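ok so heres the complex, two chains, lmk if somethin looks off
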Amino acid sequence: MPKPMADTVQIDGVSNSSARSSRHSLRKRISRNWELYLLIAPAFLYFLIFHYGPMYGIQIAFKNFMPARGITESPWVGFDHFIRFFNSYYFWDLIRNTLTISLYQLIVGFPLPILLALAFNEIKNGWFKRTVQTVTYAPHFISVVVMAGIIVTFLSPSTGIIINIIEWLGFTAPNFLTDPAWFKTMYVLSGVWQSTGWGTIIYLAALSAVDPQLHEAAIMDGASRWRRIIHINIPTIIPTITILLILNVGSILGVGFEKILLLQNPLNMSSSDVIDTFVYRTGLLNVQYSFSTAVGLFNSVINAILLIAVNQIARKTSENSLW
Amino acid sequence: MAAVIKESKTDRIFLLFTYLFLAIALLCVLYPLVYIVSASISSPTYVNSGEMWLLPKGITFEGYQRVFENQAIWRGYANTILYTVVGTLVNLLVTIPAAYALSRSDFVGRGFFMGMFLVTMFFGGGLIPTYLLVKELGLINSMWALILPGAASVWNIIVARTFFQSTIPKELQEAAHIDGCTNLRLFWKIVIPLSSPIIAVMALFYGVGHWNSYFNALVYLNDEAKYPLQMVLRQILVLQEMNSSGIGTATSGETAMAMNARADVAALLKYAVIIISTLPIIAIYPFLQRYFVQGVMIGSVKG
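and the predicted structre for the whole thing:
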């Protein structure tokens, strides 16, 4: 018979002994597991220094940061940078580009992995399914530089394969790489090509939780595949869809700027400049630290507000939300 | 097993369309990939005119030859291998122990730590404050500027924690405690050997991340000799192309034909370099696809 372990029986880390001895065993519980704190120390230090540390530096958005004087000694200027940003001639262009690209990406790119996952789910496991999955997952692993390189090469005037195909079909190909009107389409469609396959994984995981008995019963009742998908599969993955949608909207102002940075050039800038690329350019290339930090902060705050708002909507209208 | 029920006509048509849809998806993704491979060994004239559109034509290995002769690419490759190995090691050292600690239900304060980590997913200092911090730490132009700012990702910590929670039985740990085993020994001798799947998945996720990254190098490195492969690629694939509009201007002494030839080989080089730089990932991908997918599935179910 094992000896009673009153102070070691844990349920969710809460000891079930009395209040006084629970305070006692709190210290005991901490000290007994001191090594666990050692294990988590590297991660704790990492986040503290490299994530919370910069948060201290955010204050330069409200200051006129002078590197020579350091953060604390630089003078306060309040909301000057924000006002300057809001009044600038490019403010609306940046917002418009950022929002348009995000929404475009959302409308085109969000449903496709769902549809593809539903399709995968319908066919039996065999070489065809595995092949399609393996192939469609692959583009996810291509680096953003190589992806940009592929885009640039394929759309290169007169030599790119897509240009050649278009002209072979009898049309004149626009200059995709420099025409502002085509930038967003080029950006979004290449993103879809790269990420749709990989994006199905999360939905496939959710679909694997569908109770096969539901399907059997539905088949017995004479329901077609189509109806079964609509009434069984889709409702099962609605929670997943909601969560991912919230996350997507919450980062709506943080468009994948690494790729944009590679594809933007002076000719398509009017359509390709987004808030993040602007922050990069003004901050690191033009060395306007305070101003670009203010713009970046504006971006983060809007994202956070959107995230909370959408989460609240989701919470009120369904049972699914991030928190 | 129930008798096979004959599929109704509508169902068969629906299935047909599903297969069609998947076949189209397959072709859409496959075609560019096949084209790149073919183009890298085809004669530039055929590639540029569009005569080569699927299978190689006018087979030539000059593109690959040019790649092998290019010093910058080799240097970039070596740098990237170094950054990836060291970086992934750091990632594992930070992520795995933390995930294990967080998986222990008797770990006082796990809620605090988890919350602290999660907040950073949604809010952060931003590009400039982070840059200033790295500068303050004296890491500019060093390998550590590429490795330390990304030492751990919250997503991966969550995935690893889920793994620990579902794989390491509590009884095992309690038994070890009764036997007087300290937490560190428990971690080192028992947990680690049991967690080779998750270590493999984490190493893959982080490793691929390091291999493919360019932005940190762009921001923090000034020395071209330290550039990782992706930065070199950026110069060849992206920046060079933007100058193609200047190809119309002839340099003195060069005939138009020589210039075109130069431009042609430049295009050929690009396809070859795309293949060469993605080669390691292509090589391990088919074998390890399963692990990648599992990793995402673990994370998504819990997340």
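quick notes: Residues 95 and 153 of chain B are 8 Å apart (CA to CA). thats all i got rn
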